[in-house]
Design goal:
The complex is a heterodimer of chains A (213) and B (183). Chain A contains nine helices and three strands. By secondary structure, chain A is mainly alpha-helical. In chain A, 19% of the residues are buried. Classes of the chains: A mainly alpha (213), B mainly alpha (183). Chains A and B meet through helix 1, helix 3 and helix 4 of A and helix 2, helix 3, helix 7, helix 8 and helix 10 of B.
Chain lengths: 213, 183
């Protein structure tokens, strides 16, 4: 017959079977179990459930799991810093200045590319980012082609422009507020930029999508 | 782990060889899919590898490892595509090889009826397991299949021993009820 004592013991039986009860509590429960068939059966049932769980067969991992792990480490192993995190506080002023210059270059290029396309000038144009100075071919690096229908523009990174405003050089932190600067980090991820419709967000007109060719 | 922190890449291989099977099984019991369990085990060891430079031996290594594993499993279950599934989480053996492996080891397994009963029992256990509330499942699995103490489970789940005691109690009560026909 279940009693209030049984109810109290029942609440402790799992921990008792697990050997997780303090000594005094364990002695008290054992004393009760000697006289209560119902609680003994309850304890037996708990022990059987535990045995079933402990007896669950272990699955053997696939034979190539270690090799897959090794390959994954090669790709992702030390890539622990989220690349898309913008942390200007850690960059320091020189880095901010560089970012601001890059922002200006990017903004100018996007504006120029958009303007050229909207003007309907010929296909396959190449827009050079570095308008000031004469960058050597070796200094050029194709960042990404931008295709739109029959037109095709290629953004080329070259030397930084020489006519950078003085305010930009002296107070690059002011440019952190520009949307284009805040989105600089996304330029490493063209697929994401394309899906997010970044050109529109960056203020370009006439461009519906970016593609990486 | 301290060796890995010091840059010893062989230490990672040794850790993986020693613990990956346990983690795969823990994840398998947790999410009910062997394929996902292996993917999750890789996620766990990738996190371990990345965390190595910052590792401080403040807790038992296995406790720390199972904390990562539990979080990985919980994240897996909370993925949007999981949440939006109309069907509840179910245990699904994925191939015939797996079905064969999950049969209980039994000296009389050659007898068809015994093997069948073993498979039915195991399938039933796994069905009940994957339907337990997540925290109950985590606590029960660590306690039962991994042999961790309530204190260790509490550390892994970042909760109190009394909370673990309650979680294990409720999970066991559910299993007793759902498995009554087999007890």
């Amino acid at each position: 017959m279940s009693t209030s004592i049984c109810d109290r013991v029942a609440a402790e039986l799992v921990a008792y079977v697990d050997g997780e009860q303090p000594e005094a509590e364990r002695v008290r429960i054992e004393a009760h179990l000697r006289t209560c068939l119902s609680c003994r059966r309850e304890a037996d049932g708990i022990a059987k459930v535990n045995a079933l769980l402990r007896g669950l067969p272990q699955v053997e991992p696939a034979a190539d799991l270690g090799e897959r792990m090794r390959q994954r480490l090669e790709v992702d192993g030390r890539d622990e810093q989220p690349r898309r995190t913008w942390r200007p506080a850690l960059w320091g002023l020189p880095a901010l200045a560089a970012a601001a210059v890059a922002a200006l270059v990017l903004y100018s290029t996007l504006f120029e590319a958009g303007t050229n396309r909207s003007a309907g000038a010929g296909a396959g144009r190449t827009t050079r980012l570095a308008r000031a100075g004469a960058p050597s071919p070796a200094a050029e690096r194709v960042v990404a082609p931008v295709a739109e229908g029959p037109e095709h523009a290629t953004i080329v990174a070259g030397d930084a422009p020489e006519d950078v405003p003085r305010d930009l050089i002296e107070h690059p932190e002011l440019f952190l507020r520009l949307p284009v600067v805040r989105r600089l980090d996304k330029l490493e991820h063209f697929e994401e930029v394309r899906h997010q419709g970044a050109p529109e967000k960056l203020g370009r007109t006439g461009a519906s999508a970016w593609s990486v060719g | 782990m301290l060796r890995l922190r010091a840059g010893d890449e062989d230490a990672f291989r040794e850790l993986f060889e020693k613990h990956s099977r346990s983690i795969v099984n823990f994840a398998y019991h947790f999410v009910g899919s062997r394929f996902r369990a292996e993917e999750l085990a890789q996620d766990v060891f990738l996190q371990l590898y990345r965390a190595a430079p910052r590792y401080e031996p403040q807790a038992k290594f296995t406790t720390w490892l199972y904390r990562i594993a539990t979080n990985a499993c919980l994240n897996e279950l909370r993925r949007p595509e999981r949440r939006h599934k109309t069907r509840p989480l179910e245990y699904e053996p994925e191939d015939s090889r797996e079905r064969a492996e999950i049969a209980f080891a039994d000296p009389e397994a050659e007898r068809g009826d015994t093997a069948l009963a073993g498979r039915q029992l195991e399938a039933r256990i796994r069905e009940v397991l994957v339907k337990l509330p997540e925290n109950q499942r985590a606590a029960l699995l660590m306690s039962r299949t991994e042999g961790m103490s309530y204190r260790e489970v509490a550390d892994a789940l970042e909760t109190s021993e009394s909370a673990v005691k309650s979680l294990v109690f409720r999970a066991t009560a559910t299993l007793r009820k759902e498995l009554a026909e087999f007890l």
